Description:
STM4215-like; eight-stranded mixed sheet; six-stranded mixed sheet
Amino acid sequence: MRNTIRERLLASVPELKDVFEPHAAEASSLKPYAVVLQGEDGDESPWAGFRRIVEIWPYVSRSTFGKVDELEKKIIAALDKQMLTSETGEVFSCVYLGSAGQDVVDEEWDAITRGIQFAVMALQPVGTDGQITSDPWVPALAAWTVGVMGNEWNVYNGYWPLGYARPAVMWRATGIDVEVNGLASYTVTKRFTTHVLGNRQHPEHKGVNSLVAQLGSSVKIPFDLTDRRYLTVSDARANVGADAIREGQITVTLSRRIARPQDEMSLIMSVNYKSNIK
C-alpha cells in the first residue's frame, strides 16, 4: 500500500524528488520530497471494510509556506478519491481528511513542512463480492437506480466491494418489519440506507439530490413487471453532509403487500348426522 502511494505521487507530482518512509529521509535528502507515515488501523463496519490513516508530509527548503501549499494541492489531487492498485492486486482509495497538524519548521534539516491526512479505505475484502442477490428487493432497486442515475454510475448491493469504482451507489437494508393484514395477506416493510459516492465529473451532492428527488416523486418502484408487482416508496430523506462510505446520505422506506399462502384441504367425502327432531 505504501509503495503504491509512493508511485502515484512520483507520477502525479513531478516536483517531488522522492517519496520516503520516515526512517529513510535525511537532512541531505534533495528537496522537495515527501514522507509517508502510516497511522492507526481500524475495522470500519461490515459494509465498509477496513480503514487505515496515512499522513503525507511534503518537505521544502526553508523559504515560504506558499510552496508547501502548492505541493499540498497537487498531492491531494493525486490521491483524494482515486482508485489505486497495489502490486498484489489490492484496490483501495484514499480520502482526504484535512491537515495533520500545524506548520512545522525543521531548523536542523533546514526545511518546512505540513502534514496531510488521508483515510485509506477498503484495503481488504469484507467477506463478500459486494453483491447481495438473495434478497429480490435489492436487484430491483439496482435496476431502478441505473435507470435514474445512468450507466456511468456503478451500483452495489449490501457492501462496498474491494475494488469499488466511483461514481457509485450502494443500497443497504437496515431493518425489516412484517405486519399481518388479515387471513389473506401481510405487508413487508424494509428500511434502506443509500450511500452515494461521487467523483469530479459526477459530484456526490448532485447524485444525492437526483436520487432523493426521484425517490420522492416515485410512488412505486418496479419489482416484477411480469406480474405487475411494485415496491411502495415512503419517507425518503437525505443528509448531504453524512459520510458517504460509512453512514450513507439517504434513507427510505419500501413496502410490499404479499398474499398469504392458502393450505389446500382435502375434499369432504361424506357427511353423517343424526337428527334430534321427534
